[in-house]
Write a structure and sequence with these properties.
This protein is of the alpha/beta class and 259 residues long. Helices cover 45% and strands 14% of the residues. It has helices at residues 11-25, 43-51, 114-120, 124-128, 133-144, 154-169, 180-187, 198-204, 215-235, 241-248, 251-258, and strands spanning 66-73, 83-92, 95-105, 149-151, 177-179. The N and C termini lie far apart (52 Å).
Length: 259
C-alpha cells in the first residue's frame, strides 16, 4: 500500500512525518538497505580484486607518473550505456611510456546498434568475444593503481569507469581526476576555448595524429596534449597536483569572464 500523501514540508522532516502516519494507519513499512552486496566473483578474480593497491595519490609533482585514460561506450550516456573498451598510457618524466600500456575490451551480452558501431569501431564479434568484464576492469585497475587520472571530458570517462567497477567488482573509484578539456582553456587563453573537441587542441599545438577514435589511440592523443600543457603549467607556477586541482575549480569564473 502507498504511504499517505506527502505534506507540504520537505526533506527528512517530511519523510519522518509520513513514516509515523503510516505506522498509525497500520500500513506495511518497507525499509530498503543502502548497502549493496558485492558482486559474486570467482576465487581467482576476488583474490585479484582484494590485492589491488588503489589508495589514491592526493599530491605529486608534474614529473611523477600520471595515467591518461579514454573509454569507448555503447552510446553517449555513460549512466546507462555499456562500457566497451578502456585505453590508457602513462606519462612520467615528461614522456609517454607505452611499455606497458593498457587496452582492454569488455564482453557484452549483446552488441550495440550498428550506428553506434560506426562511431566506436568495435565490431559485433569483438564485443561478443571480448574479455570478461570483471577481468578487464581488474587489468585496468592494476595498471592505473591509485595514480591521478587525466582525461579529455573526464566526467564521461570517470562515470563510465565508476559505474562498471561498482557493478562488476563492487569497487568505487576514488582516484583524483583532472579534465584536460577544462585545464587546457584555463592555461591557454588564446587557444580554442572551452567546450571544444580534442582535435581542436591537437591542431592548436600542431600535434600530429596518425590514428584516432579508439580508446588507446585517443588516450595517446590526450597524453600528447598533456605534454604540450606541461610547460604552460610550469609558467603559471602550477607544479603540483593539488595546485592543478584548485586551478581547475576556477573554470566557472573564467567562463563568465571570457564569454
Amino acid at each position: 500500500m502507498r504511504l499517505p500523501p506527502e505534506p507540504r514540508f520537505g526533506g527528512a522532516f517530511s519523510w519522518a512525518l509520513r513514516y509515523h502516519q503510516a505506522v498509525r494507519s497500520g500500513l506495511p513499512i518497507v525499509i530498503w538497505s543502502f548497502l549493496r552486496p558485492r558482486p559474486a566473483l570467482s576465487s581467482a578474480l576476488a583474490a585479484r580484486r582484494n590485492a589491488l593497491a588503489l589508495e589514491p595519490v592526493r599530491d605529486q609533482s608534474l614529473d611523477d607518473s600520471w595515467v591518461v585514460v579514454d573509454v569507448e561506450t555503447g552510446g553517449l550516456n555513460p549512466r546507462v550505456d555499456p562500457l566497451l573498451a578502456i585505453g590508457a598510457v602513462r606519462v612520467a618524466g615528461r614522456a609517454i611510456d607505452m611499455a606497458p600500456s593498457c587496452e582492454v575490451h569488455l564482453r557484452q551480452r549483446e552488441a550495440t546498434a550498428s550506428d553506434n558501431i560506426l562511431l566506436h569501431g568495435i565490431t559485433t564479434g569483438q564485443q561478443l568475444n571480448a574479455q570478461e568484464p570483471a577481468d578487464a576492469l581488474l587489468d585496468w585497475l592494476a595498471f592505473a593503481g591509485g595514480q591521478p587520472r587525466l582525461a579529455y571530458h573526464a566526467a564521461f570517462d570517470r562515470l563510465a569507469l565508476t559505474r562498471a567497477s561498482e557493478a562488476c567488482l563492487g569497487l568505487k573509484e576514488r582516484a583524483v581526476w583532472l579534465d584536460l578539456a577544462v585545464l587546457a582553456p584555463l592555461l591557454v587563453a588564446d587557444g580554442p576555448g572551452f567546450d571544444r573537441p580534442l582535435d581542436d587542441w591537437l591542431v592548436h599545438f600542431r600535434i600530429p595524429v596518425y590514428q584516432r577514435h579508439g580508446a588507446l589511440a585517443d588516450a595517446y592523443a590526450t597524453a600528447q596534449l598533456w605534454l604540450a600543457l606541461l610547460p604552460v603549467a610550469r609558467a603559471h607556477k602550477l607544479i603540483r597536483l593539488r595546485q592543478l586541482v584548485r586551478f581547475s575549480r576556477q573554470a566557472h569564473w573564467f567562463r563568465s569572464t571570457r564569454s
